[in-house]
């Protein structure tokens, strides 16, 4: 029995990053890039490392570039953490797993360190493979919580629910993380939307990863918890962007969506530090006439373009600053 599962990159369209602050978001799965997991029975439980998990390098510069792109440990810790969290979930739910071992390996085409959720895609694909191998059903709204817990509790990765929700549901999803809903159910209200409602979208992401500076650390959560009015009001306004965007999508109001995408980033920049590199992505895209906001925490942007002529301008202008443009494939 050979099991193969897959999960895709994602992009936050509106409301990002209010998901971690009882807000609302709209996100899409990006099937241009994906992570796959292969699992099959074996005498011992074996995690097979991939090329990116190697400890052998051609040179000092190769090591530097590999760590800058993939981190210090590659993808193997993601698989270990997902397997551990799956076993704990089954134990807590009283699900008795048969003593069957397996070998597991992963591969990914998702660009790393650019805010397209490559790590969580590997974890989602791992959970799907384990669920199939052991014939365990995890309720769809619960699965994103487990994926997020794998990252936050096991690996110390800062994470919000939006990314894991869209990678588990796929397509286009409107998410409501209002506090009463979260406290009552333990997860948000997730409403799939018809992807045909989406306007013409582009995504652009940095390609010069080896030249990236370190991550910008922000103190927004601490300020929010402390009740700082600017942060609370701004995060509420960002959530309203998603709520208004939901209505605009349903009435196919592309002009309103264009303005909302720009407003999302402009609000975010009031409380978050934005690196020069990331701001250059935004400014270059907007100079072409497109809207632009972050897909995640930075490194890639998403927006609306009007026609093929504008898309071509985006290709040329963003390539000049070492960014690649794609049209996201959403099913």
UniProtKB/TrEMBL annotation:
Pfam families hit by this protein: GHMP_kinases_C (PF08544), GHMP_kinases_N (PF00288)
Record flagged with keyword Chloroplast: no
InterPro entries named in the record: GHMP_kinase_C_dom, GHMP_kinase_C_sf, GHMP_kinase_N_dom, Glucuronokinase-like, Ribosomal_Su5_D2-typ_SF
GO molecular function: ATP binding; kinase activity
Domain GHMP kinase C-terminal: 247-313
This protein's UniProt keywords: ATP-binding, Kinase, Nucleotide-binding, Transferase
Gene3D superfamilies: 3.30.230.120
Chain ranges of the GHMP kinase N-terminal domain: 79-171
The keyword Transferase belongs to this UniProt entry's keyword annotation: yes
Protein name: GHMP kinase
Organism whose genome encodes this protein: Spirosoma sordidisoli
Lineage, uppermost ranks: Bacteria, Pseudomonadati, Bacteroidota, Cytophagia, Cytophagales
